[in-house]
Write a structure and sequence with these properties.
Layout (H helix, E strand, L loop, with lengths): L1 H21 L13 H26 L4 H16 L7 H27 L13
Helix pairs in contact: 1-2, 2-3, 3-4
Amino acid sequence: MIIGNVGNIIVTAIVFVEMAQASGETVDQVFTTTFTEPIYTFGPLLFVIGMILFGISMIRGKVFHQISGYLLLIGTIVFAAASVSGDAQKMIELIGALFTGAGFIVSGLKFNQLNRLPESEMGKNVPL
């Protein structure tokens, strides 16, 4: 989870710079310094590794539905594979994001259901 969060923070910073570039700002030098180039290179990798480990822990932990972990895994792998897909990159990223989003929605529904339980039932698995 920590690896995923650190990667997410870095990826968010990258997205903000890309948004500034899309707005017409000159940001070419932001990711070419000796300090920021490794961040630009390894930030997305940390995010992908963290999400994969998070999905595996959801599957193995059996607190959330296993389908949410599988959706996170599939979405993250598809999203990461989009970077080497050439012209279809945007479409494949969208498909990966849909799977990942569905995984978070399913786990959020389960989490919401767990919050409604009395304290005596909190540690038990509850079907969604």
